[in-house]
Amino acid sequence: MAPTQVDPFDADIIQGVADVLGETREGLTNSQIDQALAQTRIPNVSPGITKRHRIFNALAAHQNKNGNGKSLVALIHTTMASVRYRNEQALHARRIAELNEVLIYAGLAVNEEGRVIRLKGGAASTLDEAAQRAGSIRSELRRRGTHRRVLDYCTDELLQKNNFHAMLEASKSIPARLREMAGIQGDGASLADTTLSPGKGPLVAINDGVSETDRGEQAGFANLVKGILGMFRNPVAHDPRLHRKVTDDELVEAFTMMSMVHRHLDTARRAPAP
Question: Does the pTM of the predicted model rise above 0.70?
Fold first, then answer.
């Protein structure tokens, strides 16, 4: 059921919506924001600043003036109308999922038509409740702090609830990053050995490599990467989906380990290829 009376939204809700619609890579363009604000008759009170701040300022100012949250709902209806995404269905699904992770704290959601509806269960009050009620493994993974590089590789698969292929695509993020950091080609265990093995450089070092402890940690990290690829990528790459089921729990566990690898690589020391 669509809301008829809309109470003012907390600043955190407005900011969350602005963050989704004004996201740097996949958010609305500056011209799309200008067009949407004009179409909904929301004054653009601070042109020339970052997209998300411009959206937040416009919504907050309009809400303060009118004493209700109708402007936020109107902007979502305008920017999320399904007809606008007839050639970008995956982007539409991603934005809906991200908006719903915010709006659930106000007891609202965006449906597949891009319309804001009121949820029967009311507003969520905790992170656990929000993730559960959002009905998406992606929401739970984001709540757990899954590394952005892992999610970037499998967003569409997660939205399609396709755990099998989400596991496969996410696991590709690690060798892709090693190739990027080391500037070499290769794949699988041989790539992990070439880039991470303490006896061969390493090309990508997670510590100073001075002490025996450092070298042991580096070797352990190389083995961890090889283990992740062997356990989570190779089986799903070779087995038919029909014969292998990947549960939500397995996916969360795998993504936790992949995220740990990426966080080590965030601070790793890069060395040029020989």
Answer: no
